[in-house]
Amino acid sequence: MKLITAIIKPFKLEDVKEALTAFGITGMTVSEASGFGRQGGHTEVYRGAEYTVDLIPKIRLEVLVDGEEVEKVIDVIVKAASTGAIGDGKVWSSPVDNIVRVRTGERGTDAI
Amino acid sequence: MDVVLNSGDTAWMLASTALVLLMTPGLAFFYGGMVRSKSVLNMMMMSMVTIGIVSILWVFYGYELAFGYTSDSPWYGGFSLSGLGSKVDEFTNNGGMYPIPLLVFAAFQLMFAIITPALISGAIADRTKFSAWAVFVAIWSTVVYFPVAHWVFAFGNKVGDDVTGVGYLAGKGLEDFAGGTAVHINAGAAGLALALLLGKRVGWRKEAMRPHSLPLVMLGSGLLWFGWFGFNAGSALAANGIAGLAFMNTQVATAGALIGWILVEKIRNGHPTSLGAASGAVSGLVAITPACAFVAPWAAVVIGFIAGILCSLAVGLKYKFGFDDSLDVVGVHLVGGIWGSLSIGFFGASAVNSVGIDGLLYGGGAALLGKQALGVGLVAAYSFIVTLIIGFVIEKTIGFRVKKDAEVEGIDLNEHAESAYEMYSSSRGGSSI
């Protein structure tokens, strides 16, 4: 079992969500995040005072998947989230020891 | 005296009074949006508590001190209790009789007395002890605004051919229709004094201090603009042609200033900003305030346009001189007020208002400009010096600033035990360009 975490551009969320749903993913968690990578920040000017905004708003999307599906799901996300421009984000996967569905008490892959 | 109530004038003045009141909550939005998210409630509360305090003082002695005419002094109205409740049958007498109830005039003038100290709060955002601010508002209104309003706005108690108690500057021929000196220069000079006295915010020019909500700023500037029609056109004290002139000039000067400010931004930074548009509008409103009934609409456009350019550059002064006038009370209200007051010396036209005098451009010579400069200088100097004294006394007795920890953590939480939002900061810097 794996946890896939994707940091994507906020306006790409709908595309990624649709692509994952079409692939057969039935659940995900989305949160607002901010950070920076190669894209760096940008400059804003207020009444002549310049500010460097280095934390850029992003969306963090998390999906739990069966180990066998990991590469395919990552491909789906990367394809849907890509614009080709700097700042498209990152996707990574990490191992998950256990998963429990709270309502039924199901464990492991049954709980995905 | 045979005065018959004019219901049209009275209705307009009642409406104008409500419009001017709305400017103070509007100012609270304008300022509130410009501070960081941890200080927005305190910023807005500084305006709200001013409405509370000044309204109460006005009833008991404020009106009397400004417009009482129980003394014959050019410096103050009188020291007795206002006794406003006994004046329901009286008409307004201010250099002549107006067919509107005195209580309506008193309520209208109250709204000016409220917004003037509220304007000062922008200079000391994020760091002022709330109780100290409340004490300051009460003292400042008493020793600065009420007397200065008398100097500028009191045209005397006229009985027959006798006029008593004319304000010093009104008597000298200062032309200030709605408060370029009494309101804006007064507040701007006081803001400068307090910004110097309280010192910079913790982390000024190092930490992020960008406006936390520009939509709030835009909302505030819209409410100010709307309310300002009451401020300027209402100052005619009648629903007449002068009110119409003031109304039109208010609109077009503000438009000119808005365009002037964002043009500077476009040329200098490449981007016209929403904060620039909102600030430009307010700078135009400030500048046209003294001039609105004395100049032609074409001149109002020019006055506004120059105000937008001038103020957009003046807001950078604090970085040059190193004082933290947080929301640019000096750059917008002091500079805009000075320009607007002096502009009448150039653009004043007796053709548009027979009470007015021709300025330099209409062949009137420099005499009017001299009178305007006297008003500008006297009000700015008095307000600056007296504010410094009041501020110093408050600082040495109850303290004017919150503790450093409280300021860093957030003044909303520490002074009001509230927080406006759940948010965090995501930027750094603050150097001028």
UniProtKB/TrEMBL annotation, chain A:
One of its GO terms (cellular component) is cytosol. Pfam families: P-II. It comes from freshwater metagenome. SMART domains: P-II. One of its GO terms (biological process) is regulation of nitrogen utilization. The lineage of its organism: unclassified sequences, metagenomes, ecological metagenomes. Keywords: Nucleotide-binding, Phosphoprotein, Transcription, Transcription regulation. GO terms for molecular function: ATP binding; enzyme regulator activity. This is Unannotated protein. PROSITE patterns: PII_GLNB_DOM (PS51343), PII_GLNB_UMP (PS00496). InterPro entries: N-reg_PII (IPR002187), N-reg_PII-like_a/b (IPR011322), N-reg_PII/ATP_PRibTrfase_C (IPR015867), N-reg_PII_urydylation_site (IPR002332). Homotrimer.
TrEMBL record, chain B:
Gene3D superfamilies: Ammonium transporter AmtB like domains (1.10.3430.10). Keywords: Ammonia transport, Cell membrane, Membrane, Transmembrane, Transmembrane helix, Transport. It comes from freshwater metagenome. It is a multi-pass membrane protein. The chain crosses the membrane at residues 12-31, 43-63, 98-120, 132-153, 177-199, 211-231, 237-263, 275-296, 302-319, 331-352, 372-394. Residues 11-421 form the Ammonium transporter AmtB-like domain. Coiled coil: none annotated. Belongs to the ammonia transporter channel (TC 1.A.11.2) family. It is found in: Cell membrane. Its main location: membrane. GO terms for cellular component: plasma membrane. This is Unannotated protein. PROSITE patterns: AMMONIUM_TRANSP (PS01219). GO terms for molecular function: ammonium channel activity.
